[in-house]
Amino acid sequence: MLSVYPAVFFKEENGYSVIFPDLNNLATDGDTLSEAMMMAIDCLAGYLFTAKYDHEAVANPSDMKSIRPEAIAQELELSYEEAFVNLISVDVEEYAKLHFNKSVKKTLSIPEWLNKEALSKGINFSQVLQEALISKLQSM
User: Fold this and answer.
1) Cα gap 13→16, rounded to integer Å
2) What fold does the segment set 2-99 form as a domain?
3) Which residues pair with 4 in a beta bridge?
């Protein structure tokens, strides 16, 4: 599911700062506008992923038109002369699969006969376990 939040981009001497006012002024930055945009996506995905994992409530996104860069700049003591608001969108689940989820080694025991049969058929144990766990979780 796509999550979309407004972010305020502030042009600074060495790049851009990015602030998400709806998310407790969550912030990131980048040396270029392109890098700041990529960092904003990563920052938003990380925040929402962690909040979901920790069962924390997340504020709903504001209407982009209601965001006032001047007020945020004053609060955070930033220059707002070249500030602008942009929507940042990310599919958190898909982003997490690609960037946040690392493999964890698990040790398990199965009957010897089952091991021999599976090996003779060239079955990938990790893949089968992952598929079975995903299927089980989806049915819950």
Assistant:
1) 8
2) Double Stranded RNA Binding Domain (3.30.160)
3) 89
Give CA separation, 106 vs 103, 130, 131, in Å: 9, 11, 15
Of 61, 59, 84, give the one whose Cα is nearest residue 73.
Answer: 84
Residue 55 sits at the vertex; the CA angle it makes with 52 and 61, to the nearest 5 degrees, is 55
Going from N- to C-terminal start, the domains of the chain cover 2-99, 103-140
Q: What is the pLDDT of residues 1-26, one digit of tens each?
A: 899 999 999 999 999 999 999 999 99
Phi–psi pair at 26, nearest 5 degrees = -50, 135
Residue 109 confidence class, pLDDT cut points 50, 70, 90: confident
> Tell me, what amino acid is at 9?
F
For residues 86 and 6, the answer to whether their CB atoms sit within 8 Å is yes
Per the structure block, which two tokens stand in for 53? 């994992």
Across the strands, what pairs with 19?
8, 27
Q: Quick one: how far is CA 61 from the chain centroid?
A: 15
Q: 88: which 2 tokens?
A: 């940042």
